[in-house]
């Protein structure tokens, strides 16, 4: 018997569904932005690595959407491709463009931003999956254990870039510090559960927002102190909270591109 | 009384030994440790598979190949293939034969032991030399890394160690 068949209170199911949308949409957009670096990364080894990380992350999103499908919320592919912007629960950080220009024309993407966003996001994801692996909902806990094993390599990768660029030339340091400022400006909703905070936290699906923030700070503290830098503060309140469906126009454009092929032929086999 | 031949899990496992990884065709899904459980009910078969990496694009192909292979058994009616995440697939699940078959393909098998700090070491897949450098921890597929052997001057791949201890 699966948990789906056992008795689940509507409250509990609501909490699971909301959290799964946040996790799925985060990884979906993060993977999409990562995949936009294909062919543009600083060197060929990085192209291979970034693509692999994006592919893994898309796999993580797919698993979370599948858990939603198992709860009869909808078909996983539809949930990923067809939900309108206001129903998206990803953090604003994951939807931001990689820089100026478009992929097919003249992309002037910012590698420092990619490194900082990826490192901070991956570290946040690590803190979350550590907590999720003890989730009260066992299908989430099982997926989290699997995600954690793959995340080990992602974290290692981005941490290496982060340390090296911040120990490099003055230009590199300047670009990295600018990127840190940009990324932290959007960090206010990364650990937020939005207006679902109470129901998610009381259901013991994952730790509280506050605890996860503390764990994130503690986890990157050694890297910052080795660089003789201070961990930047997480904004108290997000300017826009993606968990409540508040998004930027970057998301509209991303979803239009993302779902273009799927909408052409929704019954095609993927 | 009519005699009926029910399908046995043992027969199914024999067939699965010939279902190979589509990206590394020297190794079967059994030797990769991807087969979790095979159950039969009358003439219906259920195969539970453990995915290696969650985003691996080969998973759907493996699923299809598994179904096709099992359906070829004359006594089989229905075949169901399901991916589960518990227990999680780890590289420890690769069998000894799997290690041999990976080497045949030019891929160094994952190390059996990790150092206390989580680091690991593999020897050259071709000449066995220990004098190797890591070129890229990410390789042509999610499960592989790229290394260079300073002894025989070959580039080779290694399967990443994947462990719940990481």
TrEMBL record, chain A:
- Name a GO CC annotation attached to this entry: cytosol
BP terms from Gene Ontology = phenylacetate catabolic process
> Which Pfam families does the record match to this protein?
PaaA_PaaC
* Signal peptide limits: none
The UniProt entry, under PANTHER family, shows: 1,2-PHENYLACETYL-COA EPOXIDASE, SUBUNIT C, PHENYLACETIC ACID DEGRADATION PROTEIN PAA
Quote the protein name from its UniProt record. Phenylacetate-CoA oxygenase subunit PaaI
- What gene is behind this protein? paaI
From TrEMBL, chain B:
Query: The organism sits in which domain of life?
Result: Bacteria
Domain (PaaD zinc beta ribbon) spans 110-160
What is an example of a Pfam family matching this protein? Zn_ribbon_PaaD
Q: Where does the MIP18 family-like domain lie? A: 11-81
| InterPro entries xref list | Fe-S_Maturation_MIP18 (IPR052339), FSCA_dom_sf (IPR034904), MIP18-like (IPR002744), PaaD-like (IPR011883), Zn_ribbon_PaaD (IPR056572)
Among SUPFAM superfamilies, the record links this protein to: Fe-S cluster assembly (FSCA) domain-like
What is the name listed in the Swiss-Prot or TrEMBL entry for this protein? Answer: Phenylacetate-CoA oxygenase subunit PaaJ
Q: Which organism is it from?
A: Psychrobacillus glaciei
């Amino acid at each position: 018997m699966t948990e789906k068949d056992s008795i689940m209170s509507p409250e509990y199911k609501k909490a699971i569904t909301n959290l799964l949308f946040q996790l799925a949409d985060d990884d979906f957009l993060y993977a999409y932005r990562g995949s936009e670096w294909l062919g543009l990364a600083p060197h060929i080894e990085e192209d291979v690595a970034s693509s692999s990380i994006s592919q893994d992350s898309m796999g993580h999103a797919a698993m979370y959407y599948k858990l939603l499908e198992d709860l009869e919320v909808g078909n996983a592919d539809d949930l990923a491709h067809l939900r309108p912007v206001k129903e998206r629960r990803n953090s604003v950080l994951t939807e931001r463009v990689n820089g100026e220009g478009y992929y097919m024309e003249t992309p002037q993407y910012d590698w420092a931003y990619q490194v900082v966003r990826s490192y901070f996001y991956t570290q946040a994801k690590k803190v979350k999956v550590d907590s999720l692996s003890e989730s009260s909902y066992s299908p989430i806990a099982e997926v989290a254990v699997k995600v954690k094993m793959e995340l080990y390599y992602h974290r290692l990768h981005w941490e290496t870039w982060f340390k090296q660029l911040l120990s490099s030339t003055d230009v590199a340091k300047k670009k990295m510090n600018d990127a840190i400022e940009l990324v932290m400006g959007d960090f206010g909703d990364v650990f937020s559960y939005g207006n679902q905070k109470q129901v998610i936290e009381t259901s013991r699906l994952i730790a509280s927002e506050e605890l996860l923030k503390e764990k994130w700070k503690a986890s990157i503290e050694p890297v910052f102190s080795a660089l003789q830098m201070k961990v930047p503060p997480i904004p108290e309140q997000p300017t826009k909270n993606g968990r409540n469906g508040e998004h930027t126009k970057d998301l509209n454009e991303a979803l239009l591109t993302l779902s273009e092929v799927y909408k052409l032929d929704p019954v095609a086999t993927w | 009384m009519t005699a009926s031949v029910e399908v046995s899990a043992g027969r199914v496992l024999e067939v699965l030994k010939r279902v190979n990884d589509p990206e590394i065709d020297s190794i079967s899904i059994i030797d990769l440790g991807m087969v979790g459980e095979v159950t039969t009910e009358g003439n219906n078969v259920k195969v539970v598979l453990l995915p290696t990496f969650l985003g691996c694009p080969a998973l759907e192909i493996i699923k299809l190949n598994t179904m096709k292979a099992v359906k070829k058994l004359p006594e089989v009616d229905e075949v169901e293939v399901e991916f589960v995440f518990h227990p999680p697939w780890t590289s420890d699940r690769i069998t000894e034969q799997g290690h041999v078959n990976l080497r045949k393909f030019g891929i160094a098998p994952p190390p059996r032991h990790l150092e206390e700090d989580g680091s690991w070491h593999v020897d050259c897949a071709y000449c066995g030399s220990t004098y190797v450098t890591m070129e890229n921890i990410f390789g042509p597929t999610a499960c592989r890394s790229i290394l260079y052997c300073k002894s025989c001057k070959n580039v080779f791949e290694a399967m990443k160690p994947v462990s719940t201890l990481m």
